[in-house]
């Protein structure tokens, strides 16, 4: 009786299973295609942000204004002078929040980590309040350096406190230190606001989170820290994969855990500080986007970071456009819309089995 052939077709392992190399290549192609789709969606969100508003414009009018700027043309004034800087701030803030949230979740191994975890929002808020009440700052561009400095100092304090002891900056210690510092700084913010009506009136417009009223001066102020933070964050993908396996395994793989945590903290400070300074403490973007990216690509932080860098600004710009439409001819601040949109999305994500696992 003839023996059945056991030879496998080319590109397959014995038994007919696809070879590992072919499977990895196919997966990489799908991920690259997914990145291209996300990039197209981001471009569509940018175009929608330039088109939609109290004075709606057609795509041809927007493209014409971008290609041939005329200071005497109404469309050029609307697109280039008003909506373009607002859109650029949205792209930079979204990119920063998406990458920062991903790095923070990987660093702390906490699925609920967001820019508020390391005291970023509280530190920026306190700095803005002091800038208003003490220095008399009243412009959005004037808030940016103070907010960035406050966010950076708060993050450094949290990381320093979390690093005390023999074990260094463990995820649990960082989370506890962040909660304690945030509570203390929030109390100081409340104390200052109770004694300054002017600070209260001005802070509420910044603290809700908004892109409206941001000009090119804000763009140029936050571009360098966002660019530097993005480079550091994207370079941390392989290291975050090691940390996800635990500190002991990461050390066994040859990683210097302390250096990885320090580099992650630098990236978070640059990204969160710049985003919070530019647009205020916007909720849910840095929390939801890494979970969404993780569901698309799995647990490889190299791909999670890349997808988060595209999904987050798309989400922020879409929420900004929604805010202009639902309250026409006025608008809702983007921080309100992200909270309304992000809360149910996050609930749906965490209810799915395995989503909260890092």
From TrEMBL:
Keywords: Cell membrane, Membrane, Transmembrane, Transmembrane helix, Transport. Pfam families: FecCD. It is found in: Cell membrane. Belongs to the binding-protein-dependent transport system permease family. FecCD subfamily. The chain crosses the membrane at residues 31-52, 87-104, 116-137, 143-162, 174-194, 262-289, 301-326, 332-350. This is Putative iron chelating transport system permease protein. One of its GO terms (biological process) is siderophore-iron import into cell. GO terms for molecular function: transmembrane transporter activity. One of its GO terms (cellular component) is plasma membrane. Residues 1-20 are annotated as: Disordered. CDD domains: TM_ABC_iron-siderophores_like. It is a multi-pass membrane protein.
